[in-house]
Amino acid sequence: RHRPVPPAVTVVVGSMPAEAALNKADTSRLVECIRTVADRSNPNRWVALEQLRYFCDGADTELLEVIGGSRFSSLGVLVGLLQEVDDLGGPSALAGTCELARVPVGFVLQLLEALLCSAPNNLEAYLKVDHGVRLLVRLLASVDVLAQSQATDPSGLVLVDRACNVLCYLTYHHRDAVAPFVAADGVALVTRVLQHVHAHYNRTLGRPGSAPPSRPPPEAPWATWEGLARNAAELISNVSSASAAAQRDLALGGALRTVLDMLSLFIGKAVPAHASHTWVAEELLLAASKLIWCLPRAQTMLLEAGMLETLLRALGLCYSRISAPGGMPTQHDIVLYQATVLLMLNVQLENKPMLDEVGVAIERVSRGGELAARLRALSAVYDQMFDVCEHIDLNHFHSDEVVGGLQLVTRLLSSEEEAPYLFVHMNGRLDLLMRCLSNIDEEVLFAACCALHCLISRSPPARLLFLRKRGIGQLFDCLHDYNTSIITTSLQILCLLAAESEAAREEMRREEVLLGVLRIVERFPAEDVTLGVLDAALETISHIVLDSPINQEYIRTNGGLLPIVLALQYCYTRLGERSASAPNRHRAALGGATTTIDRTARPATAPTASRGRDHHHGYGTLSERHWGGDGDSWPEAGEHVADALKVTETACWALGNVVFRHRENQREALQAGGLASCLRLLETPEPDAQVAALNLLVNLTDTNLEAQRILSAPASSEVLLSLLASSTDDGVLRGLCLLLSHAVWNHRPNQEVYGSHSTLRQLLSFLAPPDRRASPDRRALAPAGASSEGLVLYALMALVNLTYGNAEVQRAVRELGGVPVVQQQLTSPMYEVRRSASFCLGNMVKDNSQNAAALVASGGVELLLLCLNDEDEDELSKTAYSTICQLGEAGLCRLLSLVTQAAAGLREPAAGRTGRQSEAGGYGGAPRAVRVQDEMLEEDFDDMDLEDGDGIDEAVSVTVARKPPPPPLGREAGGSAAVSPVERLELCLPVVNGMVYTLAEMRQVLADRGGLDTILGLLLTTPPHVQEEALHVLLNSIYGQPMHLKLVALDAGMMRTVPKVALASREPRVVGMCYAAMCGLAEGCERACAELAANSALVQQLVLTSGGPAHSMGEAEGELLQRASELFLVLFNSAAATGALLRCDGLRCLEQMAASSPSQLHAARARQALHEHRGGFT
Does residue 137 contact residue 178 with C-beta atoms inside 8 Å? Predict the structure, then answer.
């Protein structure tokens, strides 16, 4: 809810003491900065304050705790600066003071936000600084002046917003901050702040006639008002929760009335005026709930303000969208529904008259509908939760009563979907559960763990609030208990927190929770470390290391890898001892539909399909997506049943995440026997264990030469190939294909081992028929043995790395009929499959003319063209273009044939003339006259230069971080819709242009195979944008080329056709390209110059264009002038054309060009030509 803090920069590793984050030199500089800031007479004090900000910017929590801790006086000095501001009369009085006294209040508050909000351990130290809270509250007193001075200083309200933000943290984490807040008149001041916010929204959101008659002052940026609204509302909530007296003063002193007035502006709308208004409305609803909590007078104010029916109508609107069958409620609906339900329940809590009034209002609004029944059910649950928590509070010395109450809380939290949200926003209820975690009674402790697990697994807000209350430390204490059920449940809660919060994972390392979990694994087997405890510990480790290289390093430096490997070895040797009572598991299909795993989310894992992989842990859709409220996705606490198979799988997932993309961890795991253990697991008959082992093998093998070497040994390859030939499990086959892609990556011995005909035949058999894959229900329509899309993808990835740079494998794939099989995957509805198929085809045809001929013959060029689009960063488009370029002469000839067919189609009466034009005037596909570049799938993306013989590298990762691009030209992916002649030309010509520009041999092929005649034939029959593409091809085929190529172009009639287009066209870009093409041919070729000089109409047009005014021109006209001037200068310097230009007033044109050409180069060349023409010399 608070302002985001700067991104953390890791400074310390492992369990290094926080004080070590600053070396001796840094410590001296920091001390000097603080001393300088505190010295009121030092002219460099504000420079030193800026340097202090540099210490805090980007620092992690540990370093911020050092800077703001007792070792330095940072907090005291910052409070002293606030005191200086207060002594002068507040921020608005600083403008009239001298430079030394003009405290940069914004800097000071930014530093306090960093030191307190990003490091909550410093909050207690701040409370010990005299007048710290009072001075922050005093800043709120400036809101009247700052709100009126928005026009001259829009940043004024930001100061109030930042002060509110810091006060929110102080009052939330420490109730001791509420007393000085109230003593400093904070109740009245925060009410005043909220009134200013209300005035702003009343002006901007109020209905006609509701705005005040006077002209409103200029508004600050909307984000400032919304941040201020949320912080002020939350500050009111925090203060009301901590102090009954403050709650009464706020409710009766105007805060509640202002909140209700603001709510009337935000609720009841189907769509908020701005997305962030949803969160403003939620904070206001929560503030209202806190203000009326068990306060009858405040509850009655809702009735007096006429808000009951307004709230109920808004609630009914949200509920109707949420409960509608097949409906898709928005986040706005869900958030407002939950917060409004909470407010309506608090209105009638402990207040019988209001209960009756609310009942009447509900019946009046809903007319006895579903909403009334729903509210009655929730009211019963809410009252029970309130009563049982009160009972626990009153009987906290009676263990049996507390245990019974906590068990009832657990059942109530599971009874209704809204119950966790309602419970977590009850005053002090989460604190009650956390206090029970400190109870020495074992039964109370276990019951508290169960209730907390139920709450946290179902409520994301509860997870956030639990972390903000520093609950991880209390859970860590539970790990030292001897009750295995308590240890297991505590580990499950830690796993939940680590799965969704990077901050939680960092805190678990800093507070040595991760070290404690490692020690649990290390002690196995023991009386208090059973299989169930070990399973929960391993799953917790697998989540704590997610996206955290520093946590991965921490495990290795603390000796945690060997215990995980030993636990894996212990469990797989006892797979035959599986408990008959173990529940049936349904493994999440790798790449398939989401399923649950033993009601416990499996740890996310790593695909590492190649060096060009995305940052994604998991080569399938895993059940962690069930987190965040789906209670069935997590085991009930105390019901954790684990056998050797389950723990073996979890150990594989955990070790896989620990070694993910971490070279040192890979090396140590290999030395500990991790790879050998995986191979032994593959020999078991358990598909679940095989999938987990394959996942671990993938992460061990990723770019690791030692692991690749081990997999090349006969003992290893025999296990993998035997499993590939015998397994029918879809998940196992996918894992094997993915492992093969890693094993053979840039490793020729493994390509030979795993590139046999039998293996290739097996991989090709996984590529199911495309007509089946295009079906909506693939599994129902595919024939027996057909593969899932995930298996198709991984099989392609294996083929990509097998065929890379290996002529024998490329030949074998062709002989097995694999070229058309792979080619058909270009029609897949799955973007990743099309991309991998394009990579695979590129590898197969690189430097392989036979494969290129096979791909062309089977229609591959046409399918690859359909993969092209205008998106510069689209990998599929780039790889498809590169693959066509790798086809060489066969590909170019096929493109020219397609161009010829399209040209013939244009001459038919029904030929289509529509197409999609890009902003630059081009039509899709490859870059125009730009050196072809492509991204290689390596650790570092290299530029691709086709002249140097570089080819397409490995397969890409399983998923992409962005939404797949739309299919080109509006066709559906995998579709076969007819392509019009113009569309065909739009696809073909840019590719031809790229090939001709990049490869010298392609220019020769274009000349030898009659390609110039084909391109020239387009100029007289196609639309302007196609003419422009064709002219680019002509320009790149002759510009700067040997004379024999230019003569071929002349013989083909280029100097007859192109001038006709230049004279007939009214498009400046087309005429300009005609001049460029003629200039490329005329330069150094007297015959071409003579042919142009003989065309008097063209010469006259050229003189007029070159001598035209250079001012007030658009981009296209300016480009036309430049190209006309270039052609004019080339012809003027040719003896065969000079006379023709002079007869058409060319001398005047040359003089004008020398005097006023926008190009300095052209002006200089014109002056040189004039000098030579008049008999001078250089």
Answer: no
